[in-house]
Every structure is written in structure tokens, then in C-alpha cells.
Amino acid sequence: MNSPCRENTPWRASALGSQLAELLQRPGRLVTTGMSVLVAAFVVFATVMAQQITTNTTLDRFRGTPEAVSLVATADGTSPDISGAALRRIRALSGVAEAVGRVDSGAPIAGPFERWLELHSDPGTGPLSQVRLVEGSYPDRTGQIAVNRRAAEELALAPGTRTTLLVPNRENAEKTVKAAVIVTGVVESNATAEQQPGGYTTDAHIGPLAQLPGYERVDIRAKDGIPNTTLSQQVRGVLDAAHSDASLRSGGAVRAEEAHEAVGGDLREVFRLVSVFLAVAVGAAALVATSTFRIVFAQRLRQLALLRAIGAPQRRLVSALAVEGALVGVVAGSIGVLMALGAGHLAPQAARLLAGQKLSAPGFPVPQTILVVAGTVLVTVGAVLAPALSAARVSPLQALRTAGTLTGERRIGTARLTAGILLATAATGLAALLLHQLPQPGQEDYDRNFALLVTIASAGFAFLALITLGPLLVRPVLAVAGWPLRRLGTIGRLAVSGVGDTPRRAAAVSAVVALGVALVSGALVCLACLSGYLERTDAVRAPADFQVAANGKGLDSSAVGQFAAAPQLTHVTGYRTLEVTAGPRGSRTRFEVSDLDPDALPTGKYIDTATGSLNDLGPGRAVIASDVAELLGVRAGDPITLTPPPSASLERGDPHRRGDIRLTVAATLPGEGPGQTNVLVVPADLDRMGASTNATGIFADAAAEGLAARGKAQRALESVVREHVADPDDATISVLAEDRDSDQDAIRTAGTTALGLVALTVLIAVVGVTATTSLTAIERTREFGLLRALGLGGGALRRTITVEAGLYGVLGGAFGLALGIPYAWLLVRIVVTDAPMRLPVAQLLLVFIGLAVLTALAGLLPARRATRIAPMTALGGTE
Question: Which residues of 351-490 form beta strands (DSSP E)?
Fold first, then answer.
């Protein structure tokens, strides 16, 4: 008597063999199914590559220890630097291939205005160099320096320029030594050094130039085959003989410490975002794979039913289908990972050739490779199980039917409907809780982490509700979106009915598209809101590129006119300030009043108000900052009383003390006023308070963009101050644009990273549409043959299938925008309470139309295949 295992073994082999034979007989299905899995693996591993490229590029840009450094000797802050004699003895050691002394110093450039130049020692060439020569030659003698790009452009230190540095005297730090230098070249340094104008020379010449007795640090490269322990003993012997307490650490340890410091703060948050995106990408890949396999198994109902009819157990069919999914996952996942690996290593070369941008290579992450391939197999098998169980449950009578698909069902079960309603209720309830407890602008005592978790949970529930209730939502949305298509004639009506008649399939595909649209639209909304916040912040903190503040007698009208006449400057705006007192008797407070006109500055349009409007600023009316409004307890429309100082009247030549000035509040600001002023009034009211006629200062912009133009503008400001200001020492020139540039670079980097990552999800969505349309074309062969037989031309059929594919994008775009926009606003409102709500309508519309076009294009190839089959062949064939 045979055991059950032996009885089932032939069925296991025959069921699996049948499935494999079916795949080989219809390679189109295999390719389409495998393509969706391949792209999913490619996207996930491409994200790993992007993270590695970002990490390595950041480390290479910011860390100061080259990879070739084996050992680092660092002088203790309490002990003398490492002497030149000690450095020479270290270089003479048998285990040392190269040693470089490093020191960071600096000195102002001689002139009426001190422009600081950082000074660094570097060999200029070789494996221990931190710079790369891009123009001219590297210094080879005392009195020569090379400069970085910032110094060359901002300070106009081109090769061949002669200048003088005011180096602190080694014997007396209060005195300086004039060191004449000539610029020999321009170098490219790391990002940290590029933040300031810098000069470079070799360690042999930095001492005489900067008046330094030794080196703060020595980088040492070992000869091949010399272990660090042996090298450390040799170097320690030299340091001990030189009576130096310098510490010794391996180059790897120093680089690890630098990596921890570099990959921190905002960048670490970006990497957390990447981790979240990886989870989203895996989820999107699972959706695409599940939808694809469901359609494939629906097309194979007859074969499965026949196997059931001749006695194949349901369990064996499920096992065979799962094995089939695992094989597809292994092959497609491996190919996708290899393609992403190749793309990752080509990306730095492409960026250098196409954009002139320097990126670092990602390396070969073996653990991540294994995890992605294994994860692809698990996701694929998991995606197979649900449709495999449904397909294996088909009745043998299904073999007698001519049609029937699982995806053609229009209704959803009670359990699914209940789950969808519960998910939607949970998402709505959490969102309502967040809206009720949103922080007020400027509020700091708020648990942002908890609010972010609640937002993510609500968004997750909302997306799951969309997947669950999607078949019920397709037809209502399609009724609106398909209305114009129905007016186009037969093609439009056929396309709308083709999508609407299979709501489960349409919901599954549009959910993937919705995920991509939600991420892209959410990223665009967040960037728009954050850009608006930075515009408002910079309009107050840095209303112009430069500020010239004059103490003492201020700037007369001729000096202000000279600033305005300089061709290197634009938007020159003078202002006056006066200190007044206000508040109840006994607790009066001093405030600064200014007649700066916000409309005269290009950034004035970004200044926000808490109450009232800046347009109401006029005679007898004032705009006040939040701290003044809070102290006086006023808002727009309330009166305030300001008391000018007696000295103001005397300065104007008026011996009589000015009385209190009563004004009406035109508007209150959420923070400070532009230029950190407390109260803004018109010039006539400042005259009433007895202010001087001379300007306290000016704001000005560079006439053109770029560091070079900004350097010319700064030198023009210095020239006017030197020639037309009575006491140039009382004038201070501040470069406000540097902070603004830093903020803009941060938001630009974050935006590029976010959009680049979410664009990969869109790629998954488009591939999902392609796979679905291809399989649908195979499934509906007889239907298309009947349409051809009834007179529908091949071109018309091709356009119908293409429009159907585009409708998947329209449905997904509508669902994605409905999810992405509100949740993006919630995230921004939680993280940055002062951020304005902005809606980039043009960009969102472009995303919506672009997704519809992309998904329509995804249907072109399946449409061409469908129209190649003759009508009689299609009517007489099988699925």
C-alpha cells in the first residue's frame, strides 16, 4: 500500500511541470511577469546605490583624512606643536612612505577692510593631498600660495595676483607681520574648506609664511606590508625623543570619527527618509507583483480547472504556483540587482560628463545584494500566495466555461468592505485628532515626533483603505474623468467601459500609480511650503545681499547716492533708526524704530503679517514686531504711544524736547522686522520723533548672480565707504547673502534627493501599467478579435488600448493627489509651524498630465501586439 506522500509526489511533479510548460509555451506572460519583478528589484537596489553614493560623496567632500593615511599624529592642545625636526625624523623612518605636516591658520588681507583668508598646508599632489589643482601651478617656495575657488572669485585672487597678509607676530600676538605673497594657482578643496576663502602651500613653507613653529597634525602613509602596530612603535619613538605628547591614532579610526560627524544632522534625516522610501518601494513592488500574478492566474483558469478535474489536489497546485513565483523572483531579482549595480557605478561618470558634478563610487555592498535578492523572492512568493489560493479554488466546471476572470468581479466581499470602512475611519479619526491639536505658529512646546508618527499612521491607513475600497471608488471617479472621453466617440466609450468593467484590476493598478503620485505631489507641496518659509525668514534675517551699517554720524545723502550709482550694486535702500521707549509707566522698554520701506526691497513681498497688512503702513501708522506687540498687548487697529529720546531733538538742533508720538498699529509681524527692527514707520513720522537726516545704513544687492559678482559688489561697497564716508572705521559691511545661500542649498539638495527617490516609485507604477496592459491584451484576445470583425480598425483598436492605459494614470493621479496634498500639508505644519500653506498648482498639474501620458505610452507596445492578430485567428484561438 502506497503512502500518501508517494501518492502525492506524481501530482507535485505533474502540477509543477504543467505550470512550467505553460510558461514556456507563452513566453510573453513570463517576460511581462518577470519584468515587473525585475524593475521592482532594480528600484530597491538603486535606492541602496543612491544612499551609498550620497554617503561616500559626503564623506569625500567633508572629511579631512585621505584614504591613504595609515596613521595620524595629533598634537595635544596643551603641549607644543610637532616640530619640523620631528617631522623630518618621521619621514626618515624605515616604515614610512610619506608624511605630511598639517596646520590650519589664517590672516587678514591688508587693506582698509579686513578680508580673512584661511591658510592650510597641503602637499598639492600625491595620495595624501586634500586638494586638486585646477588652474595655474602649486606653490613651491615661500611667498607663494594657491587659493580655493571661493577666494579666487570673491576676493579676486586670480593666478598672478600679488597681495599682502597681516600675519600675527610669533613673539607678540598683538602685532602683525606683513607677508607679501603671490597667487600661483587655484585648487579645488573639500566642501568644508570651500565654505571660506582659503590659501594653500606646502608644509615646508607654511611655517615662515604664517609665523608658526610647528604642526598641529602629521598624516603618515606606511610602506606596503608595514602593519600599523610596527609603524606606531616607530613614530612613538620619534615623538618621545622630541618630548612630544602627541596622540597616535589609525587613519581608519580618524576617518570613522569624521564620517560620524559628516553624516549627521540633516543628512542623517535624509538617510532615514531613504529607509522609509525603501519600505515604500518594497510595498509598491509587492502591489505590482500581486496584481500581475493575479491577472496571470486568472488567464490560466482553464488549465487549473482541468488539473483539478483530473484529480490534482488544491495544495499541490498552490505549491506549484508558489515555486513558479520563487523562480521568477530569483531570476528577475538577480538581473534587477545586477542592472542597478552597473547603473550605480556608471552614475559618477555620467554626472561628471553631463553635469560636471563630482560623485563618489558606491562600492559593492554584498550583504545588501543578498538581502534584496532574497527579499525579492519573498515578496514574489507572498504576492503569488493570494492569487494562487484563489486560482486553486476554482471549480472543475470552470473548465467548461469560455470566459471568466478573477479580476472581472465587480463586487467586494463583506469582510473586505468592513475592513476598508474601518481603515478609512481610523485614517480620518487620526487626521481629525492632528487638526484639532495642531501647534500655533511659533509654538515650540509641541511633541513633533508623536505627531509625525500619527501622521504616518493615518496616511498608511488611508492608503490601505484605498487598496481595500478601490473597486468601489473606480466607477464614480471614472464617471467624472471619463466624461470627456465618452464625447470623443467609439474609442472613448470602449476605453472607459474596458477599464470600468474590471474594477478590481483597475483599482490594483491605479493604487500603484496613486502611491507614486502621492509621493511626488507630497514632495512638491512640502518643498513649496518650505521654500515659502525660507523666503519669509530670509526677508527678515537677510533682506538683501549686503548691509552697510554706519555708527556715529551715519551716512549723508551724497554717500547713499554713491552707493546707488555703483554699477556693481542694485536695489540700494537707505534707512534710519531711532531708539524710543514705550510701555506703561515704571516699566518702559526701549525699542528701535526704522523708516525702512519694505516695498523698496525685492524681498519685501515675502514679509508675512500676523494681523493687519503692510499696505496699511502710512503717516500716523506703524508696523510692529511680535515682541513689541506682545509686550504692549496690541494688534492691528490699536493705538500705541512712543516716546523719543531727548537727545534726538538736540541732534536736530531743536532745543525743545519732543513729546510722545501716538500712532495706530497698521500690522503686527510674526517675528522681527526686516533688519531686526522692532517698529516700522514712514520717514515723516521718524522726522516727528527728531531723527537725524543722515541714514543709519543701507541694504543693497549685487547687480548679478554668482560669487564673482558678489565679490565685485563687496569691493564696490568698500570703495564707496573708503572714499565717501567721513569715518570709514565706523562703517561695517555685512554679507547677508551667505546665510541665505546656505538655506537655499539645503532645500535644493533635499528637494533633489526627495524627488529623485520618489521618481523611482513612478517608474514602478509605469511598469505596473505596462505589465497589466500587456496581460490584459492577451486575456482579451477574443474580445479584440470580435471588435475587429465588427469593423473596428487596427488603428482604432490600438488607440482604444492606449487610452485605457492612460485612464489608469488618470485614476491613480486623482487618488494620489487626494492623498498626497493634505498629508504633505500636515507634515509641514507639524515640522515647521510658521510655514505657509502653498499649492504648486502648475507643478501638480504637470505631474497629473505627465502620469496620464506616461501610462498611455506604456500601453503602446501591448496595443501594437494586440492589433497584429488577425480577427479570425483571435476568434478561433484560446486564451
Answer: none
C-alpha cell read off for 456: 504616518
Q: Which of 843, 785, 879 is nearest to 303 (CA)?
A: 879
CA–CA distance, 19 with 14 (Å, rounded to integer): 9
Identify the band that residue 776 occupies on the pLDDT scale cut at 50, 70 and 90: low
No. of H helices and E strands in the chain?
28, 24
244 — phi, psi (to 5°)? -110, 135
What span, in angstroms and rounded, lies between the C-alpha atoms of 92 and 618?
77
Of 146, 167, 168, the closest CA to residue 157 belongs to: 146
Q: Which residue has the cell 498629508?
A: 823
- In Å, how far are 101, 147, 188, 353 from 357, measured between CA atoms? 30, 20, 13, 8
Give yes or no for a contact between 609 and 668, defined as CB atoms under 8 angstroms apart: yes
Kindly report, residue by residue over 664-683, the tens digit of the pLDDT: 999 998 888 887 888 999 99
Question: CA 819 to CA 809: how far, in whole Å?
Answer: 15
Give the contacts of 441 (CB within 8 A, at least 6 positions apart). 610, 670, 833, 834
Chain centroid to Cα 381, Å, comes to: 34
Q: How far apart are CA 818 and CA 805, in angstroms?
A: 21
- Say which amino acid occupies 674: P
Name the one residue in this structure whose C-alpha cell is 518650505.
530
Confidence of residue 402 (pLDDT cuts 50, 70, 90): very low
Total number of residues shown for the chain: 879
Measured torsion, CA atoms of residues 292, 296, 297, 300, in degrees rounded to the nearest 10: 170
Give me the chain's average pLDDT, please: 78
Q: Which tens digit of pLDDT belongs to each residue from 535-583?
A: 888 888 888 989 998 877 888 888 889 999 999 999 999 999 988 888 7
> CA 419 to CA 551: how far, in whole Å?
71
pLDDT tens digits, one per residue of 162-194: 999 988 877 666 678 889 999 999 998 876 667
Q: What is the spatial distance between Cα 844 and Cα 528, in angstroms, rounded to a whole number?
A: 11
Q: Is 679 helix (H, G, I), strand (E, B) or coil?
A: strand
The three-state secondary structure class of 865 is: helix
pLDDT reported for residue 584: 76
Q: Grid coordinates representing 679?
A: 517698529
132-136 and 198-201: which strand pairing? unpaired
**65's grid cell:** 583624512
Strand pairing report for 661-668 and 611-612: antiparallel
The pLDDT score that the predictor gives to residue 70 is 92
pLDDT in tens, 18-27: 555 555 555 5
Q: Which 3 state secondary structure label does DSSP give 130?
A: coil
Q: Which residue has the higher pLDDT, 654 or 308?
A: 308
Q: Are strands 162-168 and 144-148 parallel, antiparallel or unpaired?
A: unpaired
User: Rounded mean pLDDT of 468-488?
Assistant: 82
How is residue 334 written as a grid cell? Answer: 538577480
**Residue 90, pLDDT above cutoff 50:** yes
Cell of 419: 475592513
- Beta strand pairing call for 162-168 and 176-188: antiparallel
How far is residue 650's CA from residue 690's CA, in Å, rounded to a whole number?
8
